């Protein structure tokens, strides 16, 4: 995937798969900000028959963990905290089951070993009601202390990689406390604004604007069941931001151009630490990486959300596949992964 012709061919393949699978969402491909392919599918609001548009804002689920990681590294750059800062120093008596040896770096790299309030190794489905705190109460970061409390440590800090949603909630709590600012404001000030992302942010699910897609549990366009009772009313450190596809492309290029953090910091965040067999990807610090190859990847899967966005720092090409249903993007993402695997 090294030139515009390759990208155009990829766009054609993904378009065919999106239409065949009945995907609801957007596929967008650009080369250094120059659009190569962009198409919208399905409905942003099924009840009112409002179609998705290439400019529709979609939920990002765990893809927005990158914002949390970048905000953390920004505060580290200002010497507010350090990678080796024990989180206990910030938490005080809260979350007593978090091991005293857990550091900021452990949280960033999913090696903290803390118990996860949304344990991805547990036996639950994406449409299950898994939150133990009423979703309408989960709007501000401190409210999540109750949600992540009571989870026993699963392994010693630093022993192994285990993807951990709760770890990024703990990280958000820590960032809010050390900065003295609400977590969402920290992300806006230190990540979204310098990246020029005017249509990216943490929206409340109970008051989505007209240009944001509603998340649906089922792919069936006749199903009106939304994700509003399955997710926090406003996302936090582990997910929940919204963006349009153009904003994600701008985000990637802003990182590559040093607009958010210095080049050496981004390079450290994009340095692979571990290969994750179940994902067939490597992991850095807040970002997934190609198993082999230059691509940097963000991915999210949640009730009413499925997304993968990949940036190639060598060609500066961005491919974003996003859907406003739980499973909607995965057939198209698999087609994209197969394309990348071709010799």
From TrEMBL:
Domain of life: Bacteria
Protein keywords: Membrane
Compartments, as annotated in UniProt: Membrane
Keyword Membrane in annotation: yes
Taxonomic source organism: Microbacterium allomyrinae
One Pfam match: Beta-lactamase
Main location: membrane
Presence of keyword Transport: no
Beta-lactamase-related domain segment(s): 23-332
PANTHER family per record: D-ALANYL-D-ALANINE-CARBOXYPEPTIDASE/ENDOPEPTIDASE AMPH, PENICILLIN-BINDING PROTEIN 4
GO cellular component: membrane
Protein name: Beta-lactamase family protein
């Amino acid at each position: 995937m090294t030139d515009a012709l390759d990208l155009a061919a990829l766009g054609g393949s993904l378009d065919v798969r999106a239409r065949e699978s009945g995907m609801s969402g957007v596929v967008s491909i650009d080369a250094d900000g120059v659009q190569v392919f962009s198409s919208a599918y399905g409905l942003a609001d099924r009840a009112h028959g409002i179609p998705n548009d290439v400019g529709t804002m979609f939920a990002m689920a765990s893809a927005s963990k990158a914002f949390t990681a970048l905000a953390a590294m920004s505060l580290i750059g200002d010497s507010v905290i350090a990678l080796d800062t024990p989180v206990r120093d910030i938490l005080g008596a809260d979350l007593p089951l978090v091991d005293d040896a857990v550091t900021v770096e452990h949280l960033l790299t999913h090696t903290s070993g803390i118990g996860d309030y949304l344990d991805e190794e547990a036996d639950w489905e994406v449409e299950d009601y898994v939150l133990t705190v009423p979703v309408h109460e989960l709007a501000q970061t401190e409210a999540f202390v109750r949600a992540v409390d009571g989870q026993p440590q699963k392994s010693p800090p630093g022993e192994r990689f285990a993807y951990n949603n709760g770890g990024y909630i703990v990280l958000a709590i820590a960032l809010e406390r050390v900065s003295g600012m609400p977590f969402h404001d920290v992300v806006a000030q230190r990540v979204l604004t310098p990246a020029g992302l005017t249509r990216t942010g943490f929206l409340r699910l109970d008051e989505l604007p007209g240009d944001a897609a509603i998340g649906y549990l089922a792919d069936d366009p006749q199903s009106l069941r939304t994700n509003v009772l399955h997710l926090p009313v406003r996302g936090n450190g582990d997910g929940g931001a919204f963006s349009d596809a153009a904003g994600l492309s701008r985000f990637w290029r802003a990182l590559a151009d040093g607009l958010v953090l210095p080049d050496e910091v981004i390079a450290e965040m994009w340095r692979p630490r571990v290969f994750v067999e179940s994902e067939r990807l490597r992991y850095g610090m807040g970002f997934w990486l190609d198993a082999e190859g230059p691509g940097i990847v963000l991915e999210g899967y949640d009730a009413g959300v499925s997304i993968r966005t990949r940036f190639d720092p060598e060609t500066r090409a961005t491919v974003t596949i996003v859907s406003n249903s739980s499973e909607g993007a995965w057939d198209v993402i698999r087609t994209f992964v197969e394309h990348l695997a071709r010799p």
